[in-house]
Each structure stands twice: as structure tokens, then as C-alpha cells.
Write a structure and sequence with these properties.
131 residues; 5 helices; mainly alpha
Length: 131
């Protein structure tokens, strides 16, 4: 019988320890620490990847960016009134978040937003923030 034993995969005469290649890391590739350092250099002070602020502050989510665009259009006369702008915003939220398009649901939600004093105040703040 061999000293290493049958089916143990070791060489003859070795006493335990790691068997196989001598290096612990991947052969010929970048080490984990280097990969972390490389990724860390992409992250800016805000924690966002690639935050170079070349174009100014960007909205974190497409619905917020679209809300700002709708507010800008309202200010520039793209919509006849705030009700139309609200319906466009609700339609955008339904499209982005729920992947659906329903004119009747959009109308009902827009009416509910405008009827609730607290939510109407939020809408007014949004419309006033147009650049």
C-alpha cells in the first residue's frame, strides 16, 4: 500500500497541508486586493460610480428625471395646465414602475392626487422646482 493512501490525491510521503500548486492565489491573474482598489477608484465621494459631475446633479432614478422634465415643460408652456402635467407624470410612473399603460387608471390617480390637499401641495412644490 502506498504511503499517501488510495484516493486521497496526495503525493507519497507528504504530511498534510495544501496539496497541488504552491501559490494560494490565482495563477497569472490580478489579485483580489488589486480588483478592489481598481473598483474603489471608480467610486466618487458620494458613493456613486463615476460621479464626475460634468453635467451637474443628475436624478438617481428615471422617474425623478422625467418629473423634472415635465415640470420644465409645464413652465415653458408644453402643457396647458397643471392637471395635464400631473396626468403625464402619473402615466410615466405607471409606465416605468408597473410597465403598464391605462388612460382610465391614469385619470383616476391624477384626480386623487389633486383632490388630496397634502399630495397637491407636493405636486405644487414639484411644479415650482422647474429650472
Amino acid at each position: 500500500m502506498a504511503v499517501g493512501g488510495v484516493g486521497r490525491g496526495g503525493g507519497k510521503g507528504r504530511a498534510g497541508g495544501a496539496k497541488g500548486a504552491a501559490s494560494a492565489g490565482p495563477m497569472g491573474g490580478a489579485t483580489f486586493g488589486a480588483k478592489v482598489d481598481k473598483a474603489e477608484s471608480l467610486v466618487g465621494p458620494s458613493g456613486l460610480v463615476g460621479s464626475s459631475n460634468v453635467q451637474g446633479p443628475q436624478a438617481a432614478d428615471p422617474v425623478a428625471a422625467q418629473a423634472k422634465a415635465i415640470a420644465r415643460q409645464l413652465k415653458n408652456g408644453g402643457f396647458k395646465n397643471k392637471e395635464e402635467a400631473t396626468k403625464a407624470l402619473v402615466a410615466e410612473v405607471l409606465k416605468e414602475k408597473l410597465r403598464m399603460k391605462s388612460a382610465s387608471l391614469t385619470h383616476k390617480i391624477a384626480d386623487a392626487l389633486q383632490d388630496d390637499p397634502r399630495l397637491n401641495q407636493v405636486l405644487e412644490r414639484l411644479w415650482s422646482k422647474a429650472e
